[in-house]
Amino acid sequence: MAFQRACALADLTPDRPLRVEVEGVDVAVVRHGEEVFAIEDECSHAAVALSEGDVEDCTIECWLHGSRFDLRTGKPTGLPATEPVPVLAVRLDGDDVLIDPDTTLGDN
């Protein structure tokens, strides 16, 4: 698979997740500072949408039980989650945010 357009950069509010679907994969896209991250939009602990959670210090929090995941690696930084969430490759092309749903980053 190749990079697919997920949204416009202008669609992203800093530190507010945006839920998008790319090639059948639900993704939470987050603009944090000058960086853009894409993490699969499902908590590995409770199977709820991470895009409904809060972003702080480059982590995203699951709204249901409070697990936090590093946006760079997908690794949990707080219980009750113990399994990582896949982080997808992101590329900016002008004002477009492109995501490759088949390329995961880190140790996922």
TrEMBL record:
Pfam families attached to this UniProt entry: Rieske
Superkingdom to which the source organism belongs: Bacteria
The keyword Metal-binding belongs to this UniProt entry's keyword annotation: yes
Residue intervals of the Rieske domain: 4-99
Family matches, as SUPFAM superfamilies: ISP domain (SSF50022)
CDD domains: Rieske_RO_ferredoxin
PROSITE patterns noted in UniProt: RIESKE
GO molecular-function term, one example from the UniProt record: dioxygenase activity
Keywords, comma-separated and alphabetical: 2Fe-2S, Dioxygenase, Iron, Iron-sulfur, Metal-binding, Oxidoreductase
Protein name: 3-phenylpropionate/trans-cinnamate dioxygenase ferredoxin subunit
Species, as recorded: Nocardioides aurantiacus
Upper lineage: Bacteria, Bacillati, Actinomycetota, Actinomycetes, Propionibacteriales
